């Protein structure tokens, strides 16, 4: 018997804020938080100077030096997000967390680049000066997942997801499956990423970054004919997913239910998306949820503001769902947060569903005629009620994810 999986807690660190009221206020203001990264001016050959940092993040005072020594920025943001999620779920400090019945499914594109630099210096200078016992732990791709488990004493299964832009959504999706098929009662799930100029350089070499360096508020521009590329951001978001009867039994408030998840691979090209397999991923999620395409009320798009990505994704969405599907991209506000985006965008989508208001894509003034026909939400956003919403992400390597959430009864 398949078990139902609900969301009982969400904690977030985002450039727009860490609570829904402050995030919603900024979404309704219709302004992004892209800024010029003046310290990136020192990097010769780096064309983009734009980023979306989290400016107000600080490690909480109650975290001890021993607890944080194995954490770089991505791990510390992820642990704080997990703590907030556990607190909202009413599980912080509960013996259930250490019982083995709760695991961790969490991802990022990579670990902290400061730690990678320490190993880089070793190769360049042929000296281990500067290395210590925590260097690898801070650098490793599963640093966020491991640090969450160690910090809270979670002894269930660990599922590290390091799949670039789908790390956060695979983190949630694999956690959903672990509970649905009876492997765990609950999971801490999501993703995180820290902003680093090395990541900007990766997309820069592909001519995929925005270079509107003197107009940060005008970019990124998902689906717009005048877009010129993506802008990178950072953050972290953790979900507490729980078997529905277990959550009800302990009196937990249910925020939403996850009813469908699909993931697959293009199997064709490392960086160029494939419309057909992206659409197939959406259909897998629909089949998993037992829903028809017209039952989805809103799609939160991956919407990176890259040419091939926007065209392929819009085509896949229109083909798999319908040409009048309401859709918007939150990356127009917070940029592309890579490993965090799947979780952050799912959180904001759930909150929009529960408040019956959906944010527009800002900076979208003229839809690229090469993008498929869809109901692109623009202007002041839109008020309507949806029973089911979808959140999609598509990553380097041709890794695709689609998640479907249902509002709580």
CATH level-3 fold name: Peroxisomal Thiolase, Chain A, domain 1
Ends distance: 22 Å
Structural class determined from secondary elements: alpha/beta
CATH superfamily annotation: Thiolase/Chalcone synthase
Main sheet summary = 11 strands, mixed
CATH class (first level) name = Alpha Beta
In terms of per-residue confidence, which ranges show pLDDT below 50 for 5 or more consecutive residues?
Answer: none
Helicity level, as a percent range? 25-40%
Polypeptide structure, described:
This protein is α/β, with parallel strands linked by helices and 409 residues long. It has a single domain, classed as Peroxisomal Thiolase, Chain A, domain 1 (3-Layer(aba) Sandwich). 33% of the residues lie in helices and 20% in strands. It is built from 13 helices and 16 strands. The strands form three sheets. It has an eleven-stranded mixed beta sheet with strand order 5-4-6-8-1-9-16-15-10-11-13, sandwiched between helices. A three-stranded mixed beta sheet has the order 2-3-7, with no helix packed on it. The radius of gyration is 20 Å and the shape is globular. The model has no long low-confidence stretch (mean pLDDT 97).
């Amino acid at each position: 018997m398949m078990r139902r999986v609900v969301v009982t807690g969400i904690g977030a660190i985002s450039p727009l804020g860490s609570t829904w009221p402050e995030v919603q206020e900024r979404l309704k203001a219709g302004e992004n938080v892209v800024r010029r990264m003046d310290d990136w001016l020192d990097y010769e050959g780096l064309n983009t100077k734009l980023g979306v940092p989290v400016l107000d993040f600080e490690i909480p005072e109650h975290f001890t030096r021993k607890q944080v020594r194995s954490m770089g920025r991505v791990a510390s943001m992820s642990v704080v997000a997990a703590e907030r999620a556990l607190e909202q779920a009413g599980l912080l400090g509960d013996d259930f967390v250490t019982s083995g019945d709760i695991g961790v499914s969490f991802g990022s594109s990579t670990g902290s680049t400061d730690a990678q630099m320490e190993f880089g210096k070793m190769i360049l200078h042929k000296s281990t000066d500067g290395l210590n016992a925590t260097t690898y732990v801070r650098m490793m791709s599963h640093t966020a997942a491991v640090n969450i488990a160690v910090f809270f004493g979670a002894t269930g299964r660990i599922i590290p997801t390091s799949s670039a832009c789908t790390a956060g959504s695979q983190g949630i999706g694999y956690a959903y499956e672990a509970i649905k098929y009876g492997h765990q009662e609950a999971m801490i799930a999501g993703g995180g990423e820290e902003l680093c100029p090395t990541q900007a350089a990766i997309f820069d070499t592909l001519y995929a970054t925005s270079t509107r360096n003197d107009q940060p508020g005008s970019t990124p521009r998902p689906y717009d004919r005048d877009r010129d590329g993506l802008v990178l951001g950072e953050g972290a978001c953790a979900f507490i997913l729980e078997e529905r009867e277990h959550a009800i039994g302990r009196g937990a408030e249910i925020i939403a239910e996850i009813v469908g998840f699909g993931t697959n691979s293009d199997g064709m090209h490392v960086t160029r998306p494939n419309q057909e397999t992206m659409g197939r991923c959406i259909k897998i999620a629909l089949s998993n949820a037992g829903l028809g395409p017209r039952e989805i009320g809103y799609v939160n798009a991956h919407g990176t503001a890259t040419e091939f990505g926007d065209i392929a994704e819009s085509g896949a969405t229109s083909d798999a769902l319908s040409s009048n599907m309401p859709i918007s991209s939150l990356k127009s506000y917070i940029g592309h947060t890579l490993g965090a985006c799947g979780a952050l965008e799912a959180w904001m989508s759930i909150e929009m569903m529960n408040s019956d208001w959906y944010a527009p894509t800002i900076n979208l003034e003229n839809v690229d005629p090469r993008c498929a026909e869809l109901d692109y939400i623009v202007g002041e956003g839109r008020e309507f009620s949806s029973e089911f919403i979808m959140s999609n992400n598509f990553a380097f390597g041709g890794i695709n994810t689609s998640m479907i959430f249902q509002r709580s009864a």
